[in-house]
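Re: the multi-chain job from yesterday

Posting the exact lines I submitted so nobody has to dig through the queue logs.
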Amino acid sequence: MLKYFTKRIIQVIPVLFLCSIIIFALIRLIPGNPALILAGADALPEQIEAVTKELGLDKPIISQYFIWISNILMGDFGNSVINGYPVFKLISLKFVATLELAISGLIISLLISFPLGILSAIKRNGIIEKFTTVFVALGQAIPTFWLGILLVLVFSIKLRWLPPSGRIEFAQNPELAFKLIILPAFTLGVYTASVLTRFLKTSVLEILSLDYVLTARAKGLSEWIVIIRHVIKNALIPFVTVLGIQFGAFLGGSVVTESIFDWPGLGRLMLQSIHTRDYPVLQGTILVVVFGFVIVNLLIDLLYSFLDPKIRY
Amino acid sequence: MKIKIKLSLILLVIIVLSAIFAPLVSTYDPLEIQKGKQFLPPSMIHYFGTDEFGRDVFSRTLYAGRISLLAGLVAVIVSALVGVPLGLISGYYGKIIDTCIMRTMDSLLAFPALLLALCIVAVLGPSSLNAMIAVSIVSIPNFARISRASILTQKEKDYVEAAVSIGASDKRIIYFTILPNCIGPILVQITIAVAFAILVEAALSFLGLGTQPPDASWGAMLFSGRGYLRMAWWYAFFPGLFITLMILTLNIISEEIRDRLDPTTVT
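And the result, structure tokens for all chains:
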């Protein structure tokens, strides 16, 4: 077990290394001199030279990379070009909002996929299965941004049940905060819910046809105990992996969702930094998001081997 | 053929044809600004209503389909032309070449697809061509992975050994002997990738980073339409409907192809 854990963790390091090179290279490919942007349009040549020195832009590109990455490892992500704010601080401020949205989206997708996936597999050819089939097909086809717009049209503009956009802290006004998060969480959660439902249904169906389920039934266990103890428990193992893979869709989806609902998270920060050409912020945000994604996938992998002792690669 | 597949095919063909023949089908010039006709609701004159400049939303949606479909097709062709050879070379030669190529692909896959596309557009600058480039790059790793996996199962087979023993060159073996036998999974990937590419292009345009006004793609129409939700629901509704129908039909068709190529899958 320990050997496998170390092996998996060591495998991740080159991927993280390559990712950081890709991010560094992408930002450096941008045309224009960053020192020129930072020093301002009417800067004197000496000023530009000073900024170039300060940023280390006069050094060879490889040593620039190592300076950048070692600063980041020490928690120094540089400063925003627009307002001079430390990037690390900006990211940690917005991180909570995105995490809040991601967790709510996850809860919504679990609340939908769990009952639908299991019930549609147990009671085949009923109304639930028909509904599930339609939900799965639509959920995978509706783009997040259109779903968000439709929800705002129906629930905020037509019915006036929920506010269309914004976010406040839960501590300030729990009721309003809850109302504000429902639509974004739903928008973010539906795609993942449809993927998970489909997956759970297939794996429950597969397990139902296995011998040990037959044995459990033959022992005279009630149908519900068979399903809960033998079927669901085993269907959950691959479910966890799919959940991990879906985490990427979540991160991508959150950029779109945050933009529709004016949700002040990392996605909006990233988008703003693209529009204002604030590259240190863009670089830092992408790095945090991508590293987070890789590490979550690693954790899921480890969890998977823990849940299923048969797995040893 | 199942009724579901038939319906999907018909719908897909209608959408594609209406985009290709947009100049014939559309009722107005998509760029024509009509004063005093802003935000008219859908009617027999303007099927999908009009937008903030009095432009006909129906005609714009059809023309937008051209850009969206073109983006999808271009991205898939480019990414397949790059990704498939990379995967084939990687799988055929193995060892260090395999490690180099596939580690790079893994790191690209480590980025959530939309984020990578966002970064690329951020570097290149927002435009519909750059969005296509971004979507192509994002789609490469999947093609590489799938063709690598299929060449790995094929290369040990007798017919490959036969080709080697008659002295065929590596290039000939990879592209003319093995590739035709790997075409099934690649075909499935192409249909999935078209849907994915249309979706990512739409998302980029929706974020204001793809197709720029006055040109219209479905995503770009949603981008401008969402500012007027209170006044004109139809403005953002119809382009989104077209994207959804497109993705839905493509998904159903790609699943059908997969089932036919691999009868063992249970659904």
